[in-house]
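Recall that a protein's primary structure is simply its ordered list of amino acids. Everything else, from secondary elements to tertiary packing, is in principle encoded there. The following example makes that idea concrete.
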Amino acid sequence: MRTAAESLAEIRRLIDTHARADLRTPIDGLLLSKVVGGGSPDYSLTDPLLVVMAQGGKRLLIGDEVFEYRAGQCLVVAASLPVTGHYLDTTPEHPSLAMGLVLRPEALSALLLRAPPQPRTRAAAGAAAIATGDASPELLDAVARLLHLLASPADAAVLGPLVEQEILWRLLTGPQGEIARQIGLADSALAHVNRAITWMRDNYAVPVRMEDLAQMSGMSVSAFHRQFRTVTAMSPLQFQKRIRLQQARSLLVTRSGDIAGVGHRVGYDSPSQFNREYRRLFGAPPGQDAARLRERGEPSFP
C-alpha cells in the first residue's frame, strides 16, 4: 500500500487530469472539483457526501458553526444542508483539488451489518450532520485506486463498486465513522430529522408548520426543534429561508430579468422582502449577483 503522501500526490494528479466543469465523472456518485479562483464565498446545497481535499482547503459555515479542512483531510456531510464556503490557499497556480463521493444510505446500511458493533453514545444521538478530520492512509489509497479507474471504463464498471465499498468501509471504521453510521441507521435521530429536511428541500416554497415537521420526524415539537438545530445549526425557519434563497440564486442565473417572478416562485409574496433578504445573505441585489455568477461559471461542492 502507498504511503499517505504518495496517495495524496496521485490523487492530485488524477483530479487535475479528469476534473470537468460540471464536476461529474463516468463513475456514478463520484465528483471531481478543480477551482482556480476562490475569492468570493461559495453557496451550495449539499447532499450526504464524503469529500477528500487533495490540494488547497476550504472553510464552511453552517448556521453559526465553522468547519475547516485542508489537503489530506476529509469532510463528511450526513444530511442535505445549505452551506457557505470560502476557499483557502487557492490561486490560479495552486488550484483547489477535491474528490467527492455521494453517500447512499442503502450502501452504508449493508456494510453496517458487517461492521464491528459500537455502543450508541449520547454524543452520536445529538451530533451535528457534519464532521472534518484527517483522512487515513487506507482511505487515501482506496480513493487513488478509484480515480485510476476513470482511465478504464470497462474496469470501472466492474471494479468501481468494489472500491467504493472499500472507501465506505474505511469511512465507517475510521475517525469519522460515528457520523457516517448515522446515515445508514434507519432509526437514528439524524434519519428522523432527515425526513423533515427532505420534505423542506422538496417543498421549500410551502409555509411550514412545526407540528407537521415534528410529526413526520416522529418527535414532539420541542424535541424536534432541539434536534433539528443540533443537526443543521439552524432553526427550521432559518433553514427554509436559506433553501429558498439558494434556490432563487440558482434560478436567477438563467432568469435574471424576472427577479419578482423568481422571488414569488420560491415562496416570497413581497418583492421588497425578497430583495432585502437576498442582499443580506449574498451581499448584492439579485440581478447584480446573478450577473456575477454567470461571469464566474464555476460549480462547486463543499
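The two ends are 29 Å apart (CA to CA). Strands lie at 30-35, 42-46, 49-55, 57-62, 65-70, 73-77, 81-88, 96-102, 130-134.
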